[in-house]
Design brief:
CATH class of the largest domain: Alpha Beta
Shape: elongated
Mean pLDDT: 92
Strand order of the largest sheet: 3-2-1-6-13-14
Low-confidence stretches: none
CATH architecture of the largest domain: 3-Layer(aba) Sandwich
Length: 493
């Protein structure tokens, strides 16, 4: 072969290799990126050409794909949400421009039919020629409880969240974040409608798209005293009758800072009161001193056993990790013992704490998925309770329950359920750069009925609700929580 032919052959081989390399790069290395690119019309048309699975709860369909009402629409199916604002924190949204959020995102492989658990169904569709369709997601949400929680928050105009859990299984029975939003405009096939809705939601104040139950962390205030008490009981450092300081204020260790009770009043007429009285009245001094007595190591261990510091928790939507913060000295440890300083947790985490007490000290992994179904509603997978290592003893749980009963019975009567004993702890948490003048966040953690708890609930109302600086957990958040428990027990909310 002469030199010119060799050069041509070599050039052709190089070109072939380049073509093979380019094809490999596009079809293997960059395939997922191109597939996920919102500008890829082919993927979009394919995705909207098959029926996406439905999301349901308690026999009610919350999200489904229906035939597009526009006969000229290139996209065959359109997502439709029932009672959009009521369930939006759970369902999320599904938009051709802005992607997906909530369960629409977390459970996308099931809903679009690509999940491995639906493999047999996909093969069957291919053989029989049926139109491919996604699987269905059945939530553990109880519509009656969800509605009671949402309406109790929305009709008062409160900004905050409610989370309810079944203590024995970890099933999430309600997850509310207010103010909420309607995901239907984001699912529109009209680009201008989607863009207007997205812009409006992102410019809204307070934010609408944020799921406060999972994505926001707050100072828990006095509700954290449950954790401090659990650590102290496990250490044998306290009992309900142990005498503790009744002083209206104490000096924090390693500092000259004064820590006073919420109302600046003493906890009792004498120098000391029984610890049960301090818990019922939520006096700050005894808990600050207890945290220091128990020590940072045991406080961290107790918080960790209850789920703090877990960055990988999903329900299956991702959950922001709750943190105890820096416990570098006695002052920071004392302030953390009353749920201030750097302690931050999600409403879901606070509901987990109440649920663990209700379940005798054994936490369960929270989850909002009850079942995965095929297109024909046949059960493909069922979520089983995931019991974790014991956080504290049954004895400690029993003592905490009695202390929380004392707190409930000592609190405001608004919304109390006749004939039903609830165990609870309220919280009034300072926050921000001007904690003494900002309206406080108010909390209510509870479970009931005692002695056979069917529901554990955590409520946060941000920025004092409608009572401003005078707000307390008992006056603002507690009536919401009691309405949710009443709904769970079949009563009126």
């Amino acid at each position: 072969m002469n030199t010119p032919l060799r050069r041509v052959s070599l050039a052709v081989m190089v070109l072939v290799l380049l073509l093979l390399g380019q094809a490999t790069w596009i079809q293997v290395v960059k395939a997922d990126e191109y597939r996920a690119d919102p500008r890829n019309a082919r993927v979009l048309l394919d995705e909207y050409s098959r029926q996406r699975g439905q999301i349901s709860a308690g026999g009610e369909v919350l999200a489904q794909s229906v035939e597009s009402p526009d006969p000229g629409d290139r996209l065959r199916y359109q997502r439709q949400y029932t009672d959009g604002p009521l369930y939006a924190p759970v369902t999320g949204y599904y938009s051709q421009i802005y992607g997906a959020g909530g369960m629409e995102r977390a459970m996308d492989p099931v809903l679009n039919g690509s999940d491995d658990r639906l493999f047999v169904r996909r093969i069957s569709d291919a053989i029989t020629g049926r139109d491919p369709a996604g699987g269905n997601v059945v939530l553990s949400i109880d519509p009656r409880i969800q509605r009671a929680a949402y309406e109790a928050m929305a009709r008062r105009g409160y900004q905050g969240s409610v989370v309810a859990i079944r203590p024995q299984t970890g099933e999430i029975l309600a997850m509310v974040s207010t103010p909420s939003y309607d995901p239907n405009p984001l699912a529109s096939h009209n680009g201008e409608t989607q863009e207007e809705a997205w812009e409006s939601l992102n410019e809204a104040e307070p934010p609408r798209l944020t799921n406060r139950a999972l994505s926001e962390t707050y100072p828990p205030g006095s509700t954290f005293k449950i954790v401090t008490t659990a650590a102290a009981l496990e250490a044998g450092a306290i009992s309900p009758q142990s005498p503790v300081t009744a002083a209206p204020r104490i000096t924090l260790p390693d500092s000259t800072t004064q820590l006073e009770n919420y109302d600046g009043k003493p906890c009792g007429p004498g120098a000391t009161v029984p610890f049960a009285t301090a818990f019922a009245k939520s006096c700050n001094g005894p808990f600050a001193q207890l945290a220091v007595q128990v020590g940072a190591e045991r406080m961290r261990a107790t918080a960790s056993s209850l789920g703090f510091g877990n960055p990988g928790l999903t329900v299956p939507m991702p959950v922001q990790a709750s943190e105890l913060g820096d416990l570098a000295d006695g002052a920071s440890l004392a302030q953390s013992g009353i749920g201030q300083r750097d302690v931050r947790l999600t409403p879901l985490q606070n509901a987990r704490i109440a649920s663990t007490v209700a379940n005798g000290g054994v936490p369960l992994t929270p989850n909002a998925i009850a079942q995965i179904q095929g297109q024909d509603l046949s059960t493909v997978d069922t979520t089983e309770p995931d019991r974790l290592a014991r956080a504290f003893s049954q004895s400690t749980a029993d003592t905490l329950t009695q202390l929380m009963i004392g707190s409930e019975n000592n609190g405001s009567a608004e919304g109390k359920i006749p004939g039903v004993q609830i165990a609870s702890k309220t919280g009034t948490a300072e926050w921000g750069g001007s904690p003494k003048t900002n309206p406080p966040h108010t909390w209510y953690d509870a479970f009931g009925p005692v002695p056979n708890p069917q529901i554990a609930v955590s409520v946060i109302v941000e920025r004092g609700g409608n009572r401003g600086e005078e707000a307390t957990g008992g006056s603002v958040a507690a009536p919401i929580g009691r309405a949710v428990i009443a709904a769970a027990l079949g009563g009126n909310s």
